[in-house]
Amino acid sequence: MRRRRCTTVLAVVAGAAVIVAGCGANGVPSQAVVVPSAVPTRTVTPTVNQTRAVLVTALGGQNLILTDSQAAVRPAEAPLFAAAPRALYQVTLPADPDKGFILVYEFPDPARAATAATEQQAYLATGPGRVQTPQGTVSMIRQVGSTVVYYQWLPGAAKDQSALGIQTALESLGIDFPVAN
User: Fold this and answer.
1) Residue 20: how many CB atoms within 10 A of its CB?
2) Which of 6, 11, 28, 151 is most buried, most CB within 10 Å of its CB?
3) How large is the average pLDDT for residues 38-60?
4) Distance between CA 37 and CA 107 in Å, rounded?
5) 80 phi and psi, to 5 degrees?
6) 40: closest CA among 69, 11, 7?
7) 87: enclosing H helix or E strand
8) What is the pLDDT of residues 150-180, one digit of tens each?
9) Sequence ranges of the domains in the chain
10) Is 34's pLDDT higher than 50?
């Protein structure tokens, strides 16, 4: 709750800064102002770092590079995923630079991670979950210890041939929670 209030306050302050900057002085038009993301930053835990290392190794086997990301990515999520701390990474796809996002959700223990993965798996099969993703989307849910790795991609719209390598790499990780396409 406190995090949401902080995020709301940051969004209001950022919005006010944009309005004030847009006023311009002495009739001279103002320049565009870049406002930093209102998404709170958080320290990645050792557990998430371990999962990141596993991802780097698996993706490296496909000659893919994993980077940290600050993008505003929020896929269709069941309640447990939506409430969990998460880290966002991106695989470098030169021909498709706006794709390749991998999320790592952290849970207190492997049992809760499995529960969240099962909930996400079921959610994506429901009407609301299906409506939020284009038809043909491949959703991958993989449990790695007390984290869950989540990746979605649309093979028919992929502009970079390396995108299939992400799926191949992730198929080697942890426990699979298959999602019907």
Assistant:
1) 10
2) 151
3) 82
4) 25
5) -65, -40
6) 7
7) strand 86-91
8) 999 999 999 998 999 999 999 999 999 999 8
9) 1-40, 41-176
10) no
What does pTM read for this prediction?
A: 0.75
DSSP 155: G
Q: How confident is the model at residue 42 (pLDDT cuts 50, 70, 90)?
A: low
Give me the phi and psi of 90, to 5 degrees please: -140, 135
Q: What is the three-class DSSP state of 139? A: strand
d(CA 17, CA 99): 30
> Measured between alpha carbons, how far is 80 from 112 in angstroms, rounded to an integer?
9
Residue labelled with tokens 């790499």: 169
Tokens standing for 90?
Answer: 């991106």
pLDDT recorded at residue 7:
47
Task: Report the C-alpha gap between 54 and 106 in whole angstroms.
Answer: 15
pLDDT, residue 128, reads 79
Look up residue 11 and give its two tokens. 């969004």
- Round the average pLDDT of the chain to a whole number and report it: 81
| CA–CA separation, 88 and 168 (whole Å) | 19
Could you give the CA distance from residue 136 to residue 22 in angstroms, rounded to a whole number? 42
